[in-house]
Give the backbone structure.
Amino acid sequence: MQGPVRKEDDYTLRTVEYYRSLYPDAIVIVSTWSDENPIILDKIRACRCEVVMSDMPTYGGHLNINYQLVNTLAGLKKAKDLGATYVAKTRTDQCIEKPHAFEYMVNLLKQFPTANPERQNKRLITLSMNYGNMFYPYFMSDFLYFGTVDDVINVFSIPLNERK
């Protein structure tokens, strides 16, 4: 889970608890900012959740892409260090509430192999949005990325956007 901790109704904490109940053996990571409330982060850690903190970039970049890049990549690298094979990158203000959704996505990747195995391990599962397609062809939203840890790391391993 990536982004600022959503404190309203303890949303991020409740999402971590929910994922823990569905996937007790999964690696759950909240990748957030170093200025988050330490008391809330301790509650998240108490749920057997890894917390990764990053300093905010000085410039957000176009569509705030730099925030997503810094925060997400830090969490993905932690997932790889912890031995994850597959990762689901979501946001801290979202929850995938469908049981077995992640198993379904793993099976989709197995069912539909990549056409370029020399370039990536498996396909990526992601979402698009109507407004993105209209103004930015092939725009992928920041709501969900699912794939092998190395493939998703490759997506987010790009230079920060410095264009004004």
The mean pLDDT is 93. The CA atoms of residues 109 and 157 lie 22 Å apart. The chain has six helices and five strands. The beta strands are 29-33, 50-54, 86-89, 125-126, 145-148.
